[in-house]
Specification:
This protein is α+β, with helices and mostly antiparallel strands. The protein has three helices and eight strands, in the order βαββββαβββα. An eight-stranded mixed sheet has the order 2-3-4-1-5-8-7-6. The chain has one domain (1-152): 2,3-Dihydroxybiphenyl 1,2-Dioxygenase, domain 1 (Roll), CATH 3.10.180.10.
Length: 152
């Protein structure tokens, strides 16, 4: 039976990233994790913050949409971590259940994103709540999934 590992990180969507980073650093004593520096550029645009002992991570990125009152309408996500073999099994489980991503596409092996040292799979529940499964068995998964090295 498939199980989820611990929570790897939580995505936080904000309307002002520099302001948010200052707040999270000042109030929660979280600092940018240099291992995730490459994720700041490109479509993902996330800054990964980590607490002093590395037990808590937040991925802070710009909110995709706002309504007229300035409320963020694109939610953050909760990311769970699993091993490489479980990651492959989760892909098949989600595909078999016809689970979709936020664009309405059914999850499949080509839904996996390569983030240089980990892989991720994003999906939504029937209510639109976003989730992600990640694995740090990157090298093994790149070989198994024949990822083309296109980074997200």
């Amino acid at each position: 039976m498939l199980t989820l590992g611990k929570i790897d990180h939580i995505h936080i969507r904000v309307t002002d990233v520099p302001k948010a980073l200052k707040w999270y650093q000042r109030v929660l004593a979280m600092a940018p994790d240099p291992r995730y520096k490459h994720m700041r550029e490109g479509p993902h645009g996330a800054v990964m913050l980590v607490n002093a002992n590395g037990a808590v991570r937040l991925a802070v990125s710009l909110a995709v949409n706002e309504d007229k009152s300035g409320n963020v309408s694109h939610q953050g996500a909760i990311a769970f971590v699993v091993g490489g073999q479980d990651f492959l099994e989760w892909i098949d489980q989600l595909a078999g259940e016809r689970v979709t991503n936020s664009e309405g596409q059914t999850i499949a092996r080509d839904s996996v994103r390569d983030h240089r040292f980990f892989c991720s799979l994003s999906f939504v529940d029937p209510f639109g709540n976003p989730f992600e499964i990640v694995s740090y068995d990157h090298t093994w998964l790149v070989g198994k999934l024949k990822l083309n090295g296109q980074l997200e």
